[in-house]
Design brief:
Blueprint: H1 5-14, E1 21-26, H2 30-42, E2 49-54, H3 61-69, E3 74-76, E4 87-91, E5 108-111, E6 122-125, H4 132-142, H5 149-162, H6 172-182, H7 187-195, H8 203-212, E7 214-216, E8 219-226, H9 231-240, E9 248-255, E10 258-265, H10 272-280, E11 285-288, E12 292-298, H11 299-302, H12 311-325
Helix pairs in contact: 2-4, 2-5, 3-7, 4-5, 4-6, 5-6, 5-7, 10-12
The protein binds manganese (II) ion.
Manganese (II) ion (MN) binds near residues 31, 112 and 162.
Length: about 325
C-alpha cells in the first residue's frame, strides 16, 4: 500500500519520545551523511540526543571537505557504546550491506538501494530513487521545515553525486528535490565541496605524470610507480581527458603489491572495458564500460614477464600489451 509522505512522516514521529537516545549508523558518503543530517533535523527538540556514527574510515577529499564545511559531527563506530542508545536508525544502506550493521536491531531504515530482507518498525525503501537525500527532502517538506543552508547544501551535493549529475538513474522526484534545495543552498559551499577532489600530497603525482607521460597520437600513457592511494591514478587519468585533443588516457600505478591500470576514453571509439579485458584479462582482473575501465594485476603474477622496478620498461610493456591486444600499432 502506497502511503503519502505526510502519513509516513506521522508514523515516523510516532516512534519517538522525548527520552530517546538515538544512534544513526551510516556507511559515510555524501548521501548517507546528508540523509543523517536530515533525520537529525526532523527529530530536533523531539528526542533527548542524536549521534551519527560512521562504520567506514573517511578518506575521500570531497567527503572530508563536506564534513568540515557543513559542521557535521561523526563518531566512528569503534568509539560507540551501543548500550547508551535505545533507538537505532539506518539511512542509505540496509543491514545486509555490511557485517558491522548486523550488531544492531534497526528501528528505522530509509534507503534507495535494491530491497533486501529487512526488519524494523519503520521501513522506507525506494529503489528507483536516485538518492536517499531525495527521500529525506520529501520528509523535510512534509514536516514544513525550511532547511538551513548547510543541510540544504549537503542534500543537494548528495543528489548530484549519487546521480552523477543526473547522468545515472533519476526520477522526476530527484529533480524536484534538487530544484527545491537549490533555493536554500549556499552556492559557494556547494562549489567548494565539489571542487575539493585533491589532497596536497597528491600534487607530486601530477608533476610526475606530466614529466613522465608518453603521448602517442591522441593517447596519453603514464606510469606513476608506487602511489599512496589508487584513486590518484583515477584523478590523473581524468585530468588528461580534459585536454581537447586527447581521446585516450591510460594511467597505472603500484598499490598494495598490485599494478592498477585506469583506462579513460571519450566513449566514441573503442570500448575501454573491452580493451582492458583483452589486454590484461589473462594476467589479472579487468573490466569496465565504454569510456571507463580498470585492471588490477598482482605483481607476483608478472614478475617473470617484466622488470617492474624499471619504470620506463614497465610502461613500455603496458603500452605494448594494450596495443597488441587492441590490434593497433
Ligand atoms: Mn545513496
Amino acid at each position: 500500500m502506497a502511503l503519502s509522505v505526510s502519513e509516513r512522516l506521522r508514523r515516523f514521529y510516532d516512534l519517538f519520545s522525548g527520552n530517546d537516545n538515538i544512534l544513526i549508523v551510516i556507511d559515510a558518503d555524501p548521501d548517507s551523511i546528508s540523509s543523517a543530517m536530515a533525520v537529525k533535523r526532523l527529530l530536533w527538540r523531539k528526542v533527548a540526543n542524536i549521534t551519527i556514527s560512521n562504520i567506514n574510515i573517511i578518506k575521500r577529499p570531497d567527503n572530508l571537505a563536506m564534513i568540515r564545511l557543513l559542521d557535521v559531527c561523526l563518531v566512528h563506530i569503534d568509539e560507540i557504546d551501543e548500550g547508551s542508545f535505545n533507538r537505532f536508525i539506518m539511512v542509505d544502506s540496509q543491514p545486509d550491506h555490511h557485517e558491522v550493521f548486523a550488531r544492531f536491531n534497526f528501528d528505522v531504515i530509509i534507503d534507495h538501494h535494491p530491497e533486501t530482507d529487512v526488519k524494523g518498525s519503520f521501513i522506507d525503501i525506494r529503489p528507483k530513487y536516485g538518492a536517499t537525500a531525495t527521500i529525506m527532502t520529501e520528509y523535510l517538506r512534509a514536516a514544513k521545515i525550511k532547511p538551513a543552508a548547510k543541510l540544504a547544501t549537503g542534500l543537494f551535493y548528495a543528489i548530484k553525486t549519487d546521480t552523477s549529475n543526473f547522468e545515472r538513474q533519476t526520477l522526476i522526484e530527484d529533480i524536484r528535490a534538487f530544484q527545491f534545495l537549490f533555493r536554500h543552498i549556499n552556492t559557494y559551499l556547494a562549489r567548494r565541496i565539489e571542487q575539493a577532489d585533491l589532497k596536497l600530497e597528491f600534487l607530486k603525482y601530477f608533476r610526475r605524470a606530466i614529466q613522465n607521460m608518453h603521448r602517442r597520437k591522441n593517447k596519453i600513457y603514464v606510469h606513476l610507480g608506487s602511489v599512496v592511494n589508487p584513486d590518484i591514478c583515477v584523478l590523473i587519468a581524468d585530468f588528461f581527458m580534459r585536454i581537447d585533443s586527447v581521446n585516450w588516457s591510460i594511467v597505472s600505478g603500484i598499490y598494495a603489491k598490485k599494478l592498477i591500470i585506469i583506462f579513460r576514453n571519450d566513449g566514441l571509439r573503442r570500448n575501454a572495458g573491452n580493451v582492458a579485458r583483452l589486454s590484461f584479462g589473462r594476467v589479472g582482473s579487468a573490466g569496465g564500460h565504454k569510456s571507463m575501465a580498470r585492471s588490477e594485476i598482482a605483481l607476483a603474477d608478472i614478475k617473470d614477464l617484466v622488470d617492474y622496478k624499471n619504470e620506463d620498461k614497465f610502461l613500455t610493456w603496458i603500452i605494448k600489451k594494450i596495443n597488441k591486444r587492441a590490434g593497433e600499432k
